[in-house]
Amino acid sequence: MNRADHKRLFLPGPVEVRPTILQAQAAPMIGHRMPEFAALFARLQTKLKRAFFTQNRVYISGSSGSGLWEGAVRCGIRADRKVLHLVGGAFSERWALVSRANGLRVDCLEVPWGCAHSPDMVAEALEKQAYDAVCAVHNETSTGLTNPIREIGEVVRQQADTLFFVDTVSGFLGTELRVDDWGIDVALTSSQKAFALPPGIAFAAVSDRVLQRAQGIKNRGYYFDFLTLEKSLQKNNTPSTPPIALMYAADAQLDAILTEGMEARWQRHREMRDAAHDWALSRGFGLYAQAGYRSDTVTTVANARGIDVAAMNAFMQRECGIAMDTGYGKIKGKTFRLPHMGDCDMDMLDEVLGGLDAFLESA
Ligand SMILES: *Cc1c(COP(=O)(O)O)cnc(C)c1O
């Protein structure tokens, strides 16, 4: 593709990647059994632990985040026990489907799309039935909702044998997440959302409790087996060939992120969230997610004006060179999303909102 034709991505993944990060991938290749690779792996461990606020190891997977959904449930849930999925949007639904597809016994605690799970609901469910794990989505990208993971974690921790698995694919590095303080046993994420890397690499911070559980489970699969990943991690390595170019990109991006500072990064996202809310409400749109739980990384706009989202996207591509979201799954068109995440800044957001105003005037 011609670079001049590039449409800047204003999508909730993949997001726009800065040129320096794209260039970091072009460094000369190394072999993953060479000492240079172990050094790269060790560097990434140190930085990833800081980013996740954890002392736990962080596995690096040559896959998208969905692979680690599978790894977490296969390593953490025994065949004769059950897993509880907190479901309230497209991604939490799909994670439950993944557990079922792996033959696990699944219960879903459902809330309407756009609503948060309360700690009380989870407490009630855990009183009725023992679960090997609770699976929650931190930031539901379809609905633009952030669940109260810290508070849910407190409830899950009351059950000695229940692990807490959190998908933070679109929350990590854009909104507060503290793995150790919040009692999270698996925190998994992808690269192409608030991390602002190209797609194809995924990360999971995994507790010792998960590895102990995994030892008693026979069929954990191979590619996403945490015990296999652990054996290699002890040697600063991976069992199979890792996405080395993407690891270069992650190394450079983590330097930039840790220099910006985690709190400052979260604050930048909150400011963009506020600007997105102001724009949507002042233009006669609604906000899809429940008040008090609206995401810092993606605003799901309720299309109260009934605009033609395909025409909006076409206008934005033609007039501004920006590719827009048009909503996800069953709320496509009834909503569209403003993904103010990753390295998106207020200037970029202002440009998008200015373009949208021009579209509204022209329509
Ligand atoms: C994008 C997304 C996923 C899927 O991640 P992949 O990297 O595409 O596998 C899962 N959960 C959430 C919340 C997401 O936003």
Task: Describe this structure as you would to a colleague.
The protein has helices spanning 19-24, 35-52, 65-76, 90-101, 119-128, 149-156, 208-215, 226-233, 244-260, 262-282, 309-320, 346-362; strands at 8-10, 57-61, 82-87, 105-110, 133-137, 139-140, 145-146, 163-167, 186-190, 202-206, 286-287, 299-302, 322-324, 335-338. By secondary structure, it is α/β, with parallel strands linked by helices. The strands form 4 sheets. Strands 2-10-9-8-5-3-4 form a 7-stranded mixed beta sheet, sandwiched between helices. A 3-stranded antiparallel beta sheet has the order 11-12-14, covered by helices on one side. Strand 3, helix 4 (90-101) and strand 4 (105-110) form a beta-alpha-beta unit. The model has no long low-confidence stretch (mean pLDDT 97). The structure holds pyridoxal-5'-phosphate. Pyridoxal-5'-phosphate is lined by residues 13, 64-66, 91, 137, 141, 167, 169-170, 190, 193.
